[in-house]
Amino acid sequence: MKAIRILIVDDSAVVRQTLTAIFAREPDLVVVGSARDPYDAREKIKALSPDVLTLDVEMPKMDGITFLKNLMRLRPMPVVMVSSLTERGADVSLEALDIGAVDFVTKPKLGTSDGLEDLAYEICAKVRAAAGARLSAKVPAERAAPRSKRQAPLLATTDRIVGIGASTGGTEAIATILAALPPDAAPIVIAQHIPEMFSERFARRLDESSAIRVREAKDGDPLVLGTAYVAPGNYHLSVVRSGAKYLCSVTQGERVNRHRPSVDVLFRSLATAAGHNAVGALLTGMGDDGAAGLKALRDSGAATLAQDKETSVVWGMPGEAVKLGAAAEVVPLERVAERLLALAARPAR
Question: How many domains does the chain have?
């Protein structure tokens, strides 16, 4: 087993020490050095050639975003951002993913050392995923210009529902898909692994670059044409049927597959509520959340697809779905929107 060489870049000595201690417990994770600012990091990258960088967002001399832009232009490499669990941290982290970072973890507001220890499993998992990520599969940083919204039938209900699940690399993949959809597309429910406070910002960014409306899901929201509903961070999103309508159910149950929101929770609810009138798509992401749920969808008669390996940043979740026989189709990212539209246009049963 080849060890993953890590360089920690953070102006906080406490964070550097805590992350070093976390990685030291893992035989496959080796800290080759640490840096207190981007200028220090630049020299150590040249000298140490790390496999993965953990990068703080707010640092002296040069902020993490500016450094990341320079790094991705001159020497692209896997980066996991370390940001604060704030509105500012959410905006910057999503921008970092656009630029080329593979993933991010959030520092707790209080008790930094203990808080990071509580996130040790997540931090290590994301560093491992970053080490194996396909940087060539990252969506280009330029975001689409804000889209004008044509009048869509706000009160129109639907027989068809599209469910999308994703994790690492998913924020950019979902943006690519939604930007290609017409304003009267079938309603879409989305479970993206994302922290609380980040999901509302994520939904807003999607709304700005899509012809459909995109909003953070609220409990009881009716699913209507031309609208996508993003699961709130730290909450599960399910779909329930009420008479002829489908509604969002937002709950804070136990974590499933270590996640809340969980893709499995969303997909299983779609299998129960909509069955053969649903379409499910499992996109890039680490782990296996959503694979069993996509299988439940397929078994219920729903159309299912998984993103292919070549265009996935991490082919964990879709790869597991393929192993289970859960995906009827395996398609590249650039064809996902086209296939969702075609599958959702089939006559309802």
Answer: 2
